[in-house]
Amino acid sequence: MGERQVAAAQQYKTAQDDYIKQVAGTSPAEQIAQAKALLDTGAISLSEFETLKAKALA
Q: I need a surface site. Which of 3, 28, 30, 52 has the fewest CB within 10 A?
């Protein structure tokens, strides 16, 4: 029973932390870093990266 309570508390804290991060938003530097990571993995093209970078800096 105690293990379930600990697991539930950890799950609640994780959900709460995710919510706070979502509501708080990200800084322009974080947005550019995320876009760079996508570029590095090939998920986006260089032109898409440049567009995201410009939006972050605007």
A: 3
Place of tokens 């260089």: 46
Burial of residue 39 (number of CB atoms within 10 Å: 0-12, 13-18, 19+)? middle
| Interior angle at CA 43, CA 48 and CA 15, nearest 5 | 105
Tell me, what's the pLDDT at 13?
Answer: 83
Check if the beta carbon of residue 8 is closer than 8 Å to that of residue 16: no
Alpha-carbon distance of 13 to 16, in angstroms, equals 5
pLDDT 10s digits, 35-55: 999 999 999 999 999 999 998
> What's the total number of domains in the chain?
1
pTM (2 d.p.): 0.56
